[in-house]
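Student:
Attend to each token:
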Amino acid sequence: MRRLRHILWIITALIFLGLSWLWDHLHPIITFIIRLIPLEGLKEAVRRFMDRLAPYPTLIVFLIPAVVHELMKVAAIWLFHKHLWISGILMYVAADIIGIALVAFLFETCKPKLLSIPWFAKLYGWFEAAHRWAHAQVAPLKAYIHQALVEAGLAGGHASVWAKLVALWKYTRRQSRAARAT
């Protein structure tokens, strides 16, 4: 039971890190997309508007993209229901891009004001702590995989995924044989 719980915690950490990795890698792309939008005047007006708001109204404005995001996903599901698959996929992808772009823009604009709300700051601190915890949970697994790839001479990253999986499998077999021999 303890081993199963450990595996479930590692899976939870991997999911959390996967989402964080997506955010870390999509955030610059979304920021680039936002910069491409030729609406500097509108973006500056939004920044000035957000600067004038108190923290709680800022939070309400910050949550608007989440509502729009979810409504767009409902529309995508409706399109799927109507068997309009391509339109549904496009709506779903657009919802994610627009949702992430708006949240990223508003969070960068409003971060100090949002963190002035005690419970939001506590929630943000918890998120940061969870991020550090997930890294700590996955670090031994990453070290194990790295060691397997180093021993196979594949640590440079230029080998195929299949070759890396085979090397990891062989390393795991050698380790388990060595453990049984002692």
Q: What stands out?
A: The radius of gyration is 22 Å. The mean pLDDT is 83. The chain has six helices and no strands. Residues 105 and 159 are 37 Å apart (CA to CA).
